[in-house]
Amino acid sequence: MTNLILESSAFKNGEQIPKKYGYKNSNVNPPLTIKGIPKDTKSLVLIMDDPDAMGAVGKVWVHWLMWNIAPIAEIKENSIPVGAIEGKTDFGEIGYGGPAPPDKEHTYIFKLYALDTNLNLKEGTSKKDVENSMKDHILAEAKLTGRYSP
Predict the structure, then answer these.
(1) I need a labelling partner for 39 at 20 to 30 A (CA). Which of 112, 132, 140, 150 fits?
(2) What is the CA radius of gyration of the chain?
(3) How many CA atoms lie within 13 A of 80 on its CB side?
(4) pLDDT tens-digit profile of 113-147?
(5) What local confidence, expressed as pLDDT, does residue 77 receive?
(6) CA gap 96, 65 in Å, rounded
(7) What is the DSSP track for 1-38?
(8) Which helix (H) or strand (E) segment is 134 a member of?
(9) How would you classify the pairing of strands 61-69 and 15-16?
């Protein structure tokens, strides 16, 4: 396994995600920096979800789902990389849905996967289908967590 690293210039791992990235605020994605991509990587997958939503809504809430990201060093704030495809979030929308905890502070997890293939999936595909398509193709993975209070 290589040391795939996912970071953000907007917040450090485990720290507060700035308010502007929240769903009820500007709802723009934070800038993400990617390091240590394995050389055989054909594409990247990014999944952002909220496991703390289990207590509030009974499921892990999907906030962002993106695949077929070229092996790039960064995803700029409020943008998606050329050629990347986005899936449907639990807000029922395609694209980034920022943190929106209904009750108390939640922890949000950005998960990055390096794959040895591109995924043949249409825009709006669900997280479950993306995860099923990634099986046996993951070269490396990285995580970035941030906290957000209502």
Answers:
(1) 132
(2) 14
(3) 18
(4) 999 999 999 999 999 999 999 999 999 999 999 99
(5) 98
(6) 8
(7) ----EEE-SSS-TTEEPPGGGSTTTT--PPPEEEE---
(8) helix 127-134
(9) unpaired
Residue at token pair 């899936």: 87
For 43-69, write each residue's pLDDT tens digit.
Answer: 999 999 999 999 989 999 999 999 999
Task: Give the position of tokens 């209070």.
Answer: 149
Q: In what order do the strands lie in the sheet with 5-7?
A: 5-7, 32-35, 74-75
Q: Give 58's Cβ-side CA count (13 Å radius).
A: 0
Query: What is the C-alpha to C-alpha distance for residues 148 and 108, in angstroms, rounded to an integer?
Result: 8
Please give the angle made by the CA atoms of 134, 93 and 9, to the nearest 5 degrees.
70
3-state secondary structure at position 88? strand
Indicate the residue type of 100.
Answer: A
Amino acid identity of 36? G
Rounded Cα distance between 81 and 69, Å, is 6
Chain centroid to CA 104: how far?
21
